[in-house]
Amino acid sequence: MAQRVLVVEDEEDIAFPLVRTLEREGYDVSWVDSGERALADLEGVAADVVILDLGLPDMDGLEVCRRARESGFGGAIMIVTARAAELDRVVGLDYGADDYLSKPFGLAELQARVRALLRRTQNGFAPAVPEDPNGLRIDAAARRVYAGDQEVPLTGKEFEVLSILASHRDKVVSRGRLMADVWDENWYGSTKTLDVTIGRLRQKLESVGVTDKVVAVRGVGFRLEAGQVQATSG
Q1: Of residues 175, 169, 225, the one with CA closest to residue 202
Q2: What is the pLDDT of residue 226?
Q3: DSSP per residue over 123-185, as a string?
Q4: CA dist 53 to 11, 86, 112, 232, Å?
Q5: pLDDT band with cut points at 50, 70 and 90 for residue 7
Q6: How many distinct structural domains can be found in the chain?
Q7: 98, 122, 146 — which closes off a domain?
Q8: 130 or 12, which is more confident?
Q9: Predicted local distance difference test score (pLDDT) of residue 132
Q10: Does residue 233 sit within a domain?
Q11: What crossing angle do the helices spanning 61-70 and 35-44 adopt, rounded to 10°?
């Protein structure tokens, strides 16, 4: 079955070439021109990737992003917008977006980013990670994280950062490694987005009582500190 892409863009001269390009790549593409229609579409049919413009006529795209995540949407969200300031990039990621592309952009670059997002969301980002006796469990195939029986709602980037740190428990993972593996070579934004993602991840883990700690090693990177673990098949 073809992977489904939802394009949320109110400008036809941008949406039409984008839809045609993605369809030529073999994707099942749907197009809507408002935030409410996007949310209604996601409730009815699952999407693998949402390409989301921020300047929608009925609501800000960040609100669409937030509401989609709150309703349980687990696919990738790529924001496409003319707002190129670093603050907007950080805020967009904080609302649950996985990637950010500034207008104007080349279709080849957008295609490459869509492929990168699909590789991470469809194939699983990392091998199954051992279960923590304190309750932290990562299901890499399903891209879900649990604290005991409670699922911890993470964005795509938060999940990928945690997966890398958990697969190197008690070892430092450099900032450069995290940026390269999670945001890949197409990311040209500030590395402050990594700090924002780490901050959100810490808050979410702490809020459900996970005892593992994401520790910053100044000037180097981050480490997930945990106790003894037993490997389980995933």
Answers
A1: 225
A2: 65
A3: S-SSS--PBPTTSEEEETTTTEEEETTEEE---HHHHHHHHHHHHTTTS-EEHHHHIIIII-T
A4: 9, 16, 18, 41
A5: very high
A6: 2
A7: 122
A8: 12
A9: 43
A10: no
A11: 20
pLDDT, tens only, 20-35: 999 988 899 999 999 9
> How far is Cα 13 from Cα 190, in angstroms, rounded to an integer?
30
**One domain, residues 76 and 160:** no
The answer to whether residue 70 sits within a structural domain is yes
Residue 56 has pLDDT above 80, yes or no: yes
- Check whether residue 81 and residue 145 sit in a common domain: no
**Judgement on whether residues 152 and 69 belong to the same structural domain of the protein:** no
User: pLDDT digit string (tens) for 124-135?
Assistant: 443 334 444 456
Q: Give the E-state strand segments of the chain in sequence order.
A: 4-8, 28-32, 49-53, 76-81, 99-102, 136-139, 144-147, 150-152, 173-174, 213-217, 221-225
| CA–CA separation, 109 and 99 (whole Å) | 12
Query: Do 17 and 66 fall within a single domain?
Result: yes
Residue 134 has a pLDDT of 54
d(CA 194, CA 200): 10
- Return the bridge partners of 138, or none: 145
Domain limits for position 39: 4-122
